[in-house]
Amino acid sequence: MAAWSLSAVAARGENAAAAEASNAAGKRFMVILTTCIVVNLLFIFRSS
Q1: pLDDT at 8 over 90
Q2: How far is CA 6 from CA 38, 39, 42, in A?
């Protein structure tokens, strides 16, 4: 939720470049988070 609120705050700002950078960072964070979840699920399934 924090990443979404930060993106919203940046998007409301006057600096479009900052909004784009924030959005890109949010997408990168989501990719990393998804990868971690998938790896954890694979590890759990392999160990059980």
Answers
A1: no
A2: 25, 27, 31
Total of domains in the chain: 1
Q: What is the model's pLDDT at position 44?
A: 92
DSSP symbol at 34: H
Helices (H), the chain: 2-12, 16-47
Please name which of 4, 27, 28, 32 lies closest in space to residue 40, comparing C-alpha atoms: 32
Tokens representing 43? Answer: 């590890």
Give me the domain span that covers residue 22: 2-47
pLDDT of 23 reads: 84
